[in-house]
Design goal:
Chain lengths: 395, 136
C-alpha cells in the first residue's frame, strides 16, 4: 500500500445558507481546496462525496454526479457515501484506500448538507433516520434522545450523581463554544464565547437531561479535500499532511449494544485499527477533533478512543485536560457544538481543521507544536464509526 | 420472523422473542441471527414480558410525525431473559422528572399501544409502541 497525503482543504462558513444549494455548498468548499492543491482539474480522477439526507432536506438523491459536473469534472467516477453523520469520513477513508492501493493518484473528497434550512421538525426526523427504522423510531427516539439515554446510563454505571455529571457535560459546551466563537468558519463565530455552566444547565430542555446547549446545532455547510499519493503530493505542495492510519467499524441498534452504548465499542475498534495502521498509541496524538454531537458524546468518545479510562472522561474535562492548553486538546476548532454540524460535511471539516492546525495555519486557536492529530466521526447510534490519524511526518 | 409479527403479538399483550437452540440465549426484537452467537438455529418463543428500566429520557422536541405525542419518555428496558428493548414509559413527563434517576432499576411490564403511522415508518397501516408500565 502507498502512503497518502492531503494536498488541500476547503470548507464553507458553517451556519444557515437558505440561498445556497447542496451543489453550491460543495462547489464553494471544493474550489478552496483546489486553489491550494497546485493541480489542474483534469488531474482529479474520481470524486468521493458524502451526504446523509439530501432526499429529505432538498428532495435530491443521486447527488455525486451533479457535484462532479458542477466543478467541471463531468464523466469521472463520482460516488456518494452515506454513513449518517460520518458520511464524508467514510468517503474520505475510501478515497484514501483507493489511492493507497494504487488505483488512483489524485482524487477529490467532500460533502454537503442543509439541516438548518430544513427546519427543526424535518431536521429532527431526518437525523432520526439514523436510528433503527423499525424498533427504535417507533417510540419517537431522536438523536438528543440517544445521547440522553447514554448520559443517564453513564451516571448510573459510574455512580456519579446526575447533577454532577450534567455540570461536567456543560463544561464541554462551554469549552467548545469558547473555541467556536473565535473560528471564522464556525456557525457561532463571535457568539456564545463566554458561556457559563449555569447557562448550559438552564437552557431549554430538549431530551432530559440534555438541554439545547448540550446539543450541537442544525447546520448548512460544505467541506472538501484533495488527496494524492504521497510521492506525488511532495512534488506539488510545500507541506503535505500525511494520512497515517484509518479505522472503521459498525454496530446495530442501541438495544443490541445494551450497556456498551457508554463504551462505544465500534469506536474502540475503529480507533485501535487506526492506531495499529499508524503504528502509534494514544500518547502520540497531540490533539483530536472529536464527534461532540452532544456534550456527553465527547466524553464517551475520549474514553473509547483510549485517551482516558472508562468513566474518567468527564473528570478530564473538569480538570482542563481537554482544553487547548491541556495534555489532550479536544476540538480546538469548536467541534460540532461550536462550529456546527452539517452532517454529511462534518467529517471532512474535521480533516480541514486538522490539516490547517498541522500546517500552522489555524491562527485563531493554535495547538502549540502539534505534529500529529486524530479525527473521530460517529454515524448514527454507533452504526458507523471512523477514526483517522494525520501527521506532518511521513513515517 | 417478520417485524410485524413482533408488533402484532405486542398488541395481544405478548412479547415474542427467539431462543437460540445452539447457545441458549434469547434475541428480541427478532433477528435473522442469534444476537449472542450468530446462529440461525432459532426458535420463536413467548418471553415473560417483564424487565427493568436501564435508562430513559423525556423528549420535548419530537421529530415530524411525532410532535403531537410529545413530551414522551423513551426508555430501554432489560427483559428478564436478557435482551434490551426500546419503548416508552407510560407516565406523564412531570412524574418521570420527579422520580429522576430512581426510575433506573424499576420493574416494568411490557404491552403494546397503537399510534397513527407516519410517512416514513415501514408499517404504513399503524405504528405500535412497546409501552412500559411500572409494577408494584
Amino acid at each position: 500500500m502507498r502512503d497518502v497525503a492531503v494536498l488541500g482543504v476547503g470548507m464553507t462558513k458553517f451556519g444557515r445558507h437558505p440561498d445556497k444549494s447542496l451543489v453550491d455548498l460543495f462547489a464553494e468548499a471544493f474550489f478552496e481546496a483546489f486553489e491550494e492543491s497546485n493541480i489542474e482539474l483534469k488531474d482529479i480522477q474520481a470524486l468521493y462525496y458524502g451526504n446523509f439526507v439530501g432526499e429529505m432536506t432538498d428532495g435530491s438523491g443521486n447527488l455525486s454526479g451533479f457535484m462532479a459536473d458542477e466543478i467541471g469534472l463531468r464523466g469521472i467516477p463520482a460516488i456518494r457515501y452515506e454513513g449518517a453523520c460520518a458520511s464524508s469520513s467514510v468517503a474520505f477513508r475510501e478515497a484514501v484506500r483507493a489511492v493507497a492501493a494504487g488505483y488512483y493518484d489524485i482524487v477529490a473528497v467532500g460533502g454537503s448538507e442543509r439541516l438548518y434550512t430544513a427546519g427543526t421538525e424535518i431536521g429532527t426526523r431526518a437525523l432520526a433516520t439514523a436510528v433503527d427504522g423499525v424498533y427504535e423510531i417507533t417510540a419517537g427516539l431522536t438523536f438528543p434522545g440517544v445521547f440522553a439515554l447514554a448520559a443517564r446510563l453513564y451516571a448510573k454505571k459510574y455512580e456519579i450523581p446526575l447533577e454532577e455529571l450534567r455540570e461536567m457535560m456543560a463544561m464541554v459546551s462551554v469549552k467548545n463554544h469558547k473555541y467556536g466563537a473565535v473560528n471564522p468558519k464556525a456557525q457561532f463565530y463571535g457568539k456564545l464565547g463566554d458561556l457559563k455552566v449555569e447557562d448550559v444547565l438552564n437552557s431549554r430542555m430538549i431530551s432530559s437531561p440534555l438541554t439545547l446547549l448540550d446539543c450541537c446545532p442544525m447546520t448548512d455547510g460544505g467541506s472538501a479535500a484533495i488527496i494524492a499519493a504521497a510521492d506525488i503530493a511532495e512534488d506539488l505542495v510545500d507541506m503535505p499532511v500525511y494520512v497515517r492510519g484509518t479505522g472503521q467499524s459498525s454496530a446495530g441498534g442501541l438495544f443490541r449494544q445494551k450497556e456498551d452504548i457508554i463504551r462505544a465499542i465500534p469506536r474502540k475498534k475503529a480507533a485501535e485499527m487506526a492506531f495499529k495502521e499508524a503504528k502509534m498509541t494514544p500518547e502520540d496524538i497531540d490533539f483530536v477533533e472529536i464527534h461532540d454531537c452532544f456534550t456527553i458524546a465527547e466524553i464517551i468518545a475520549t474514553e473509547a478512543m483510549g485517551f482516558f479510562e472508562y468513566g474518567q472522561g468527564c473528570y478530564a474535562v473538569r480538570d482542563g485536560v481537554t482544553s487547548i492548553d491541556g495534555d489532550l486538546p479536544v476540538n480546538p476548532d469548536g467541534g460540532l457544538i461550536g462550529k456546527g454540524h452539517p452532517v454529511g460535511a462534518t467529517g471532512v471539516s474535521q480533516v480541514y481543521s486538522v490539516v490547517k492546525q498541522l500546517r500552522g495555519e489555524f491562527k485563531e486557536n493554535p495547538v502549540k507544536d502539534a505534529e500529529t492529530a486524530m479525527t473521530d466521526t460517529l454515524g448514527g447510534d454507533f452504526g458507523t464509526l471512523v477514526n483517522m490519524i494525520f501527521s506532518i511526518h511521513r513515517r | 420472523m417478520r417485524f410485524v409479527d413482533f408488533f402484532n403479538a405486542l398488541l395481544e399483550g405478548k412479547v415474542i422473542g427467539q431462543k437460540c437452540m445452539d447457545c441458549g440465549s434469547y434475541t428480541c426484537p427478532p433477528k435473522a441471527t442469534c444476537d449472542s452467537c450468530g446462529s440461525r438455529n432459532l426458535e420463536t418463543v413467548e418471553l415473560s414480558g417483564r424487565g427493568v428500566i436501564r435508562t430513559f429520557t423525556t423528549t420535548y422536541v419530537a421529530p415530524s410525525g411525532y410532535t403531537e405525542e410529545a413530551p414522551y419518555t423513551v426508555a430501554m428496558v432489560e427483559l428478564d431473559e436478557g435482551p434490551w428493548i426500546v419503548g416508552r414509559i407510560d407516565l406523564p413527563g412531570e412524574e418521570v422528572e420527579k422520580l429522576g434517576q430512581d426510575l433506573i432499576g424499576a420493574r416494568v411490564r411490557v404491552y403494546g399501544k397503537e399510534f397513527p403511522t407516519e410517512p416514513f415508518y415501514p408499517d404504513k397501516k399503524r405504528r405500535v409502541v412497546p409501552m412500559f408500565k411500572l409494577e408494584g
